[in-house]
Design brief:
three-stranded parallel sheet, alpha+beta, SIP_FAD-bd, Sugar isomerase domain-containing protein, 276 residues, five-stranded antiparallel sheet, isomerase, SIP_fam, single chain
Length: 276
């Protein structure tokens, strides 16, 4: 009788940074190496890992053991809890014991700033977002906001239109006209856009009313995703109409997909940004 050995759903690798490559002003590729990274499995383009970082002023990382390590980690006091972030693996080279991860830099802002739940109401943050994007004059902006009234959203719309970028707004027309703008100018995202795509979501976003008041089941994320696909379809149609080949990804799970996508991305080095 053949015994099947259990496969652990996860394992810990101890790594160090071998190289850092700046791909753009806000995009960095970090290459990690470690004594057993030659055993790191390459599971394709959607492979996610958790990166545990040292606590401030300390070297190395200590994580709880066992299948419930994550629950144990969450229960630790904050001053003892190593920061953990989730990333998508960019490349795996077992023969070199190397793994690449692409990081998006957020302007070196402290965690407290980024964690502020009211950050989107601050118009000044739009200037930092625009600078980090480092757009070219020909770039088109697509800004999505259910309400279209918060300070950062409206300020970003004002910035891009003042600089001559075409602006497409995705918003709920029903919602935005029923609320007071929070931008000092009193303007809304929709008023600044060249094209407005109505996501069709109701005031408050949620669809199903509750007997005791309130509602559940927000719909804007679903309808906005549909609008994004419809926009993609229209752009591709126009490429074909002009006799050009659209630069589209293939699924990484079909033969030749990885090779096609790598060749395609090489045309846009420094322009692609991921937030994984």
């Amino acid at each position: 009788m053949t015994e099947t050995l259990p496969i652990a759903p996860w394992r810990v690798f101890t790594v160090e940074v071998r190289a850092v490559h700046r791909l753009s002003p806000s995009f960095v590729r970090v290459t990690f190496t470690g004594p057993d990274l030659d055993r790191f499995a390459d599971n394709g383009w959607d492979q996610r890992i958790k990166l545990a970082l040292p606590l401030p002023g300390r070297r190395g990382v200590r994580l709880p053991d066992g299948a419930d390590w994550y629950a144990q980690w969450r229960a630790l006091p904050e001053e003892q809890r190593n920061p953990i972030r989730t990333y998508t693996v960019r490349a795996v080279r077992p023969h070199l014991a190397e793994v690449d991860i692409d990081l998006v830099l957020h302007g070196d802002a402290p965690r407290a700033v980024l964690a502020d739940p009211k950050l989107e109401r601050d118009p000044s943050i739009a200037h930092r977002i625009y600078a980090l994007a480092a757009p070219e004059p020909r770039d088109v902006f697509v800004v999505a906001s259910q309400s279209g009234i918060n300070g950062s959203v409206v300020e970003l719309a004002r910035l891009v239109t003042d600089r001559g970028h075409p602006l497409i707004a995705v918003t709920s027309v029903e919602h935005t006209v029923r609320v007071v703008p929070r931008h000092p100018s009193g303007r809304r995202l929709a008023a600044l856009a060249d094209v407005v795509l109505d996501n069709g979501a109701p005031y408050g976003d949620a669809l199903l009313p509750l007997d005791g008041g309130g509602a559940v089941c927000a719909v804007s994320s679903v309808t906005t995703a549909l609008l994004a696909q419809l926009l993609t379809a229209e752009v591709v149609r126009r490429f074909h109409q002009a006799g050009e080949v659209p630069p589209i990804y293939l699924s990484a799970n079909v033969p030749g997909g990885d090779e096609h996508n790598l060749a395609l991305e090489s045309r846009y080095v420094g322009r692609l940004r991921r937030t994984a």
